[in-house]
Structure prediction request, 356 residues.
Amino acid sequence: MFDKFADLDDKISHLEGRLSDPGLVADQKEYQKVVREHAHMVKLNDKYRDYRKVQQQIQENKAILFDENEDQEIKELARAELEELADQEKRLDQEMKIILLPKDPNDDKNIFLEIRAGTGGDEAALFAGDLFRMYSRFAESMGWRVEVMSSSPLGIGGFKEIIALISGDQVYSKLKYESGVHRVQRVPETETQGRIHTSAVTVAILPEADEVELNIDMNELKFDVYRSSGPGGQSVNTTDSAVRVTHLPTGLVVTCQDEKSQHKNKAKALVVLRARLLDQMERERHEKISQDRKSQVGTGDRSERIRTYNFPQGRMTDHRINLTLYKLDAIMSGKIEDVIFPLIAHDQAEKLRGIQ
Prediction:
């Protein structure tokens, strides 16, 4: 399995040559692609060198054990070191296999985060706002940029729906497991008798689609413009700047009204539409290979209840991997890495099981 590691030095030298090419630097998109590939190769090479070094040390220690002239005390030290080296070899073997796993082509992409209030009325809308703040704070901690594309705010402080573009390094790879139904259990502020209510919010994570990947025929689009309105029906502006775009072949509809310019709302709506069309194509493709999806953590089934946030107990449970954490305040403040990394590890373990 590790035969491809043998010529890594040559591949790294070739990529370094490309990175010094002024012509490549001018093409920022291709340049960033080569930078990522170079970093990946260097990481592979470092692991492979560590692996070979451990293997060499194992052979040296075994030679000591079989040497009849060697001192017994030295043999005991070699035997103890062999146990440690065997653990290191196993760990490095696992790490290299993970690096060699087929890469999700979307992992490097920016994403559209779509959050919609489900069952639960105002309480669901309030929790939609809480989730948006949670993801925004996590994005800030990762050095990512969050741009609201469209929103339907309520006067109480929540959202019926909010769509945001999150841009940065490896965004999709970290957030792709967030798609699904998020259930909240808590006592609403308006509840006078202290009863716990259960509400639900749907989250969708869509990778941003490049124009090269998906070319939309403008003749298949229907545009409607209307006057924007904010919470409580108050007018955002006095011109018909809000845009609704309908993709006629699929019936997909995207609405954008956050910008005062009709042109900007139209541009945002088209970007979101492109992502939704790509997502639909991806989900159709996944359904054809549904057997493969059963071995993975769900990354697209929005009807699946993936997580419960229980406020009275300060508990968050991810039902896919049976993970329960009693640190809900920290999670809601954006510290969701304790949920994300176990999900990634679980997915990697399942994929490794499939190739072994």
